[in-house]
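stage 2 :: seqdesign
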């Protein structure tokens, strides 16, 4: 992924494997200038069913699961600061990349699942990178 900035946000969707382990099915990497999605095959044979909550299916994916580490580390290689939402995701991603992952929850920002208007995301923490924290814009009034 071409890095136009110093920060990148990583997210993933997953299913639970045979031993209740996290199996990444979709990986999302987004910077100020680009976003990429990677879809992984199952690491082992599973029934084609998946999750009714998020629509993920064991049969989905086109990248071999054994490539997860390589795909992730190459996608974030040119970024100085890596972010994810939630301690469990940060821990898993840090283990895969061998790099620290900053938890967006610690920055007191809105949860990413919240509805976001065209005004952007308002973050209350001053330590959040400027390229990722956009102040709320003021919508001009059309009245008089």
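stage 2 :: out
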């Amino acid at each position: 992924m071409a890095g136009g900035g110093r920060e990148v946000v990583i997210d993933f969707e997953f299913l639970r494997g045979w031993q209740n382990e996290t199996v990444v099915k979709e990986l999302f990497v987004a910077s100020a200038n680009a976003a990429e999605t990677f879809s992984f095959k199952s690491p082992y044979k599973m029934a084609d069913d998946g999750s009714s909550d998020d629509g993920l299916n064991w049969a989905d994916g086109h990248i071999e699961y054994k490539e997860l580490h390589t795909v992730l580390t190459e996608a974030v290689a040119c970024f100085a600061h890596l972010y994810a939402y939630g301690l469990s995701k940060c821990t898993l991603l840090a283990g895969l990349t061998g790099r620290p992952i900053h938890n967006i929850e610690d920055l007191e920002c809105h949860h990413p699942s919240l509805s976001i208007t065209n005004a952007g995301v308002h973050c209350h923490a001053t330590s959040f990178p400027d390229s990722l924290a956009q102040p709320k814009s003021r919508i001009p009034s059309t009245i008089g």
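stage 3 :: structure notes
- The beta strands are 7-16, 22-30, 35-39, 81-84, 102-103.
- The longest strand covers residues 7-16.
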